[in-house]
């Protein structure tokens, strides 16, 4: 069984007459970078929220590491799947940039030395060291986006979901993110990118899932094209 599997998943928002997603079958492996693309409102973000238990499927089953997602608490899912929201303001809550990066590690009980080491690595990698003591919500949009990604990556979940990770990033930072995501996948941490940035998707993703009218209308394996298989 794949790391994350969806079997005949359907979903409708309460009080909406139409079914947003229907008959969704997907098998996602660790290590692989999969992009989900589709028009505005096609249900990309909703699909990822189902995968992390923020929403419950109206029909079908979702399995995480071989167990139904219904048997996990949200905290247990959060330890396995890191989620970077489209709007970083929704997930930044600490008083400083460095606390934000270290929070997940401290919560998982990492020793202070490991916390310090990883915080320094991510501050450096995402070029956030100069604002280490800044209040996260006062950062620029691009800095907030980098911080949200750094904070999720720092706690090293098995799998990542990044919703529009390139919004607010300049070309240089997109290049850094691209390299880091590819390296992360090669180390065995799979991910889903929800994105309208097709140039970025083409560089990074090994598989592209296209959603339209509530269904998967494209599931293209592109291994080899992206040039980063192990
Ligand atoms: N909490 C909610 N209650 C009711 N309808 C919702 C809710 N959240 C999203 N929707 C609706 O569900 C549909 C799909 O939204 P979703 O955000 O999943 O699409 P998306 O493909 O990620 O869009 P975008 O590309 O614009 O980010 C939209 O029509 C949206 O208005």
UniProtKB/TrEMBL annotation:
<dbReference type="GO" id="GO:0042626">
    <property type="term" value="F:ATPase-coupled transmembrane transporter activity"/>
</dbReference>
<dbReference type="GO" id="GO:0043190">
    <property type="term" value="C:ATP-binding cassette (ABC) transporter complex"/>
</dbReference>
<dbReference type="Pfam" id="PF00005">
    <property type="entry name" value="ABC_tran"/>
</dbReference>
<keyword id="KW-0067">ATP-binding</keyword>
<dbReference type="InterPro" id="IPR015856">
    <property type="entry name" value="ABC_transpr_CbiO/EcfA_su"/>
</dbReference>
<dbReference type="InterPro" id="IPR003439">
    <property type="entry name" value="ABC_transporter-like_ATP-bd"/>
</dbReference>
<protein>
    <submittedName>
        <fullName>ABC transporter related</fullName>
    </submittedName>
</protein>
<feature type="domain" description="ABC transporter">
    <location>
        <begin position="4"/>
        <end position="230"/>
    </location>
</feature>
<comment type="similarity">
    <text>Belongs to the ABC transporter superfamily.</text>
</comment>
<dbReference type="InterPro" id="IPR003593">
    <property type="entry name" value="AAA+_ATPase"/>
</dbReference>
<dbReference type="GO" id="GO:0005524">
    <property type="term" value="F:ATP binding"/>
</dbReference>
<keyword id="KW-1278">Translocase</keyword>
<keyword id="KW-0472">Membrane</keyword>
<dbReference type="InterPro" id="IPR017871">
    <property type="entry name" value="ABC_transporter-like_CS"/>
</dbReference>
<dbReference type="InterPro" id="IPR027417">
    <property type="entry name" value="P-loop_NTPase"/>
</dbReference>
<keyword id="KW-0547">Nucleotide-binding</keyword>
<keyword id="KW-1003">Cell membrane</keyword>
<keyword id="KW-0813">Transport</keyword>
<dbReference type="InterPro" id="IPR050095">
    <property type="entry name" value="ECF_ABC_transporter_ATP-bd"/>
</dbReference>
<dbReference type="GO" id="GO:0016887">
    <property type="term" value="F:ATP hydrolysis activity"/>
</dbReference>
């Amino acid at each position: 069984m794949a790391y994350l599997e969806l079997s005949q998943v359907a979903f409708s928002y309460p009080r909406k007459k139409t079914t947003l997603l229907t008959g969704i079958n997907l098998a996602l492996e660790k290590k692989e970078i999969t992009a989900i693309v589709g028009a505005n409102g096609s249900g990309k973000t909703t699909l990822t929220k189902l995968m992390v238990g923020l929403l419950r499927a109206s029909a079908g089953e979702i399995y995480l590491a071989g167990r139904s997602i219904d048997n996990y608490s949200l905290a247990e899912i959060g330890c396995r799947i890191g989620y970077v929201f489209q709007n970083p303001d929704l997930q930044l809550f600490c008083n400083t940039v460095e606390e934000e990066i270290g929070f997940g590690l401290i919560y998982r009980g990492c020793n202070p030395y490991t916390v310090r080491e990883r915080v320094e690595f991510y501050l450096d990698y995402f070029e956030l060291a100069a604002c280490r003591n800044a209040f996260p919500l006062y950062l620029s949009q691009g800095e907030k986006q980098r911080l949200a990604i750094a904070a999720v990556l720092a706690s090293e979940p098995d799998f990542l979901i990044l919703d529009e990770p390139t919004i607010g990033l300049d070309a240089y930072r997109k290049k850094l993110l691209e390299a880091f995501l590819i390296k992360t996948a090669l180390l065995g941490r799979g991910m889903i990118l929800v994105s309208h940035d097709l140039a970025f998707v083409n560089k990074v993703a090994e598989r592209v899932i296209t959603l339209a009218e509530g269904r998967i209308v494209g599931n293209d394996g592109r291994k080899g094209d992206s040039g980063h298989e192990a």
